[in-house]
Amino acid sequence: MKKIECIIRSERLKDLTPALRKIGIPGMTVSEIRGFGVQSERPDAFLFVHKTKIEIYALDTQVKDIISTILTQCSMGRVGDGKIAVLPLNECVRVSSGERKSKAILPRKGEKKR
């Protein structure tokens, strides 16, 4: 299991979301964030740029497709397009049911996608 974190341009979220759903990603967490990267030569008032952070819990077999989808939907070939980090996920527990590992990540049987 992996946790995928990516930081993207906020305007790319509207295209990325349906593309991730199309490849079978049942859910993700989205946060509006601010930060700066290697191009920090801005006046202090404009140093922190608005971005969107996405977090996805995924099976190892899904990681390649998720990264490919993020790159396809979010890469504009410009500085500031974002970053993708893939982290090991040692444990995941669904709070409502206590299901663990892959059962906590995948949709429950019979559960409708929203």
Note down, in words, how this protein is organized:
This protein is an alpha+beta fold and 114 residues long. The chain has a single domain, classed as 2-Layer Sandwich (Alpha-Beta Plaits), CATH 3.30.70.120. The protein is 23% helix and 27% strand. It has 3 helices and 4 strands, in the order βαββαβα. It has a 4-stranded antiparallel β-sheet, with helices on one face. Helix 1 (13-22) runs antiparallel to helix 2 (63-74). The protein is elongated and about 50 Å long. The model has no long low-confidence stretch (mean pLDDT 89).
Mind telling me which CATH architecture this is?
2-Layer Sandwich
Strand order of the largest sheet: 2-3-1-4
- The Rg value, from CA coordinates, equals 16 Å
What is the fold-level CATH name, i.e. the topology? Alpha-Beta Plaits
What's a quick, concise take on this entry?
With 114 residues, the chain is of the alpha+beta class. It has three helices and four strands; from the N terminus they run βαββαβα. The protein has a four-stranded antiparallel beta sheet, covered by helices on one side.
Q: Layout of helices and strands, plus pairs?
A:
Blueprint (H helix, E strand, L loop, with lengths): L1 E7 L4 H10 L6 E7 L13 E10 L4 H12 L7 E7 L13 H4 L9
Antiparallel strand pairs: 1-3, 1-4, 2-3
